[in-house]
Amino acid sequence: MMRIDQHPLPAGSSNCQYSLSSFHFGQPGAKKVYLQASLHADELPGMLVLHHLRALLERAEAEGRLQGEIVLVPVANPIGLSQTFMHDQMGRFDFASGTNFNRGFPDLSEPMIALLADALGDDAQQNVGLIRAAMRQLLDAAECRTPLDGMRIGLMRLAHDADIVLDLHCDCEGVMHIYAPSDHVAEAGRLGCYLGARVLLIADAIGGGCFDEMLFKPWLRLRARFGAQFPVPQSCFASTVELRGEQDVSHQLASADALGIYHYLCGAGLIAGAVAPPPAAVCVPTPLAGSVTACAAEPGVISYVARPGDVLKSGDVICDIVDPLSGGSYAVTSPIDGVMYSRVIFRYATRGMELAKIAGKTERRSGNLLGP
User: Fold this and answer.
1) CA–CA distance, 133 with 168 (Å, rounded to integer)
2) Which uninterrupted H or E stretch holds 115?
3) For residue 39, which phi and psi values (nearest 5 degrees)?
4) What is the C-alpha separation between 99 and 92, in angstroms, rounded?
5) CA distances (Å), 354 to each of 69, 208, 210, 237, 299, in order?
6) Largest Cα–Cα distance in the chain?
7) DSSP state of 288
8) Does pTM top 0.70 for this prediction?
9) Alpha carbon distance 43, 250 (integer Å)
10) What's the helix, strand, coil split of the chain in %, to 5?
11) What is the rounded CA–CA span in Å between residue 225 and residue 236?
12) Between β-strands 300-304 and 348-349, what pairing exists: parallel, antiparallel or unpaired?
């Protein structure tokens, strides 16, 4: 039956220590799924989704229908969850270092190439085991100088050998959208159908060392290096799921999202029983490099015209910005055709502030695609 494990983090100060709690369902040895919530600790919808999913998994386990291992980490960032400043929870950046909690995860690609240069062979499944063992070896040897280091390594240890990894986040104000690598577009599409995703953003090089990329990137790099000689399957579908916006926290939404993930896991072979057919897709995949951010040219009060989920044409008005002193105003327009999938929660813009993101079909950017 389900067990709960505690993973203490290095103490950052005397008598002050955090730990990660992981909930384990099913049995190791078969297919494994890992889900975590609120790595940005002020993004709370995922916590409630995993609360509802836990109940569904407990029932499935009691009925003997689990066919693999499912691991839940409902609070992926206990450090950020404790960061409150004058009643405002601030869980995106680490107070101690200023670092984004979803950046700076270790890139194990090059060390793994060196470690596996003389180990891989002609058996694809044996290679999968060797790759996961090498990843665990590097994680076990990693230096943890701070509680944040320990948290990053601890989360990757829990997830490194999973076939499916879902990192549950949310945007400021937004519609359901999913980030996924190009090798798993079809898998992301199936997940998106069960969740009603309005946007699928595809990228193999996201930038910044975010959690999901550092789990699927080693497989891409190993196949690029050794694929001509040895079979290296892409054995980790790691994806970030953005559960709408920060204020979209309710039992109604969370229970529906949990049920969507549950049906997806049934279809992926983790839970025995009748598989609910996925609803029809409501979007097509688009490149993350085709996503463009609209920004404020001048400061002022924001009055939005477009809502998250709106399909915009280039030149359509996103919002008006009003100067409260001069009385002047100007319109911020969409720079491309696409779906406006998120907007900021603030209603006063400073010069240059990001206002909204639009998913387009044509690649326009390169380098770090997510920002700080």
Assistant:
1) 26
2) helix 109-116
3) -60, -40
4) 8
5) 40, 19, 20, 30, 12
6) 72
7) G
8) yes
9) 13
10) 30, 30, 40
11) 17
12) antiparallel
The list of the chain residues with pLDDT below 50 reads: none
- Residue 206 CA to residue 215 CA, distance in Å, equals 12
Counts for the chain of helices (H) and strands (E), in that order: 8, 20
Residues 341 and 199 sit within 8 Å (Cβ to Cβ): yes
CA within 13 Å, CB half, 287: 11
Structure tokens at 316: 């359509």
Per-residue model confidence (pLDDT) at position 365: 85
Structure-token match 């390594």, residue found = 153
pLDDT tens digit sequence for 114-141: 999 999 999 999 999 999 999 999 999 9
What is the pLDDT at residue 236? 96
pLDDT in tens, 226-256: 989 999 998 999 999 999 999 999 999 999 9
Q: Are strands 291-295 and 285-287 parallel, antiparallel or unpaired?
A: unpaired
Q: What is the pLDDT of residue 33?
A: 98
pLDDT for position 142? 95
Q: Which residue has the tokens 């996924």?
A: 180
Looking at residue 29, its pLDDT comes to 82
Task: Please name the residue that has the structure tokens 């709408």.
Answer: 244
Specify whether the CB–CB gap between 164 and 34 falls below 8 A: yes
Cβ(29)–Cβ(40) below 8 Å: no
> Collapsing DSSP states into helix, strand and coil, what is residue 251?
helix
